[in-house]
Design goal:
The chain is largely without helices or strands and about 130 residues long. It is about 0% helix and about 10% strand. The strands form 2 sheets. The protein has a two-stranded antiparallel ribbon with strand order 1-2. A two-stranded antiparallel sheet has the order 3-4. A hairpin with a 2-residue loop joins β1 and β2. The protein is globular and about 40 Å long.
Length: about 130
């Protein structure tokens, strides 16, 4: 995981940043430390988030369509009503995440980790507790 600070499209990408509504389509954020970042209603369509650290992040209403999220850490993240259609969440850490109301059509969640995860249909997934 990278701890370096980075700016893209004028947005400073670092832990605790307020990036609500940010336009980050196709951004390369793989391996970045974005702990507790606010990306509510941000557009990350087709972004590369491989191995990024987004624990406790706020992603409600975010557009994550067709994102590469392989190995991402979303533990404790809020993804209510996020759109993740076609996203690759292979080996993602989704423990304690809230996916209520999220759209995940065609999303690949093989080998993803779930524990106390609120799924889009509001059931709690404890498969990896």
């Amino acid at each position: 995981m990278s701890t370096r600070q980075k700016s893209i499209n004028g947005y400073r990408l670092e832990p605790f940043a307020n990036l609500q509504g940010a336009q980050l389509q196709r951004a390369r954020l793989g391996g970045m430390n974005l702990y507790c970042v606010n990306l509510r209603n941000a557009d990350l369509t087709e972004a590369d988030l491989r191995g990024a650290y987004l624990a406790e992040a706020q992603l409600s209403g975010a557009l994550l369509t067709a994102c590469n999220m392989v190995g991402i850490n979303l533990s404790g993240a809020t993804l209510q009503r996020a759109t993740m259609n076609g996203a690759d969440l292979t080996e993602a850490n989704l423990r304690n995440a809230d996916l209520s109301g999220a759209r995940m059509y065609g999303a690949d969640i093989k080998s993803a980790k779930f524990c106390r995860t609120i799924m889009p249909d509001l059931r709690v997934n404890n498969q990896d507790c």
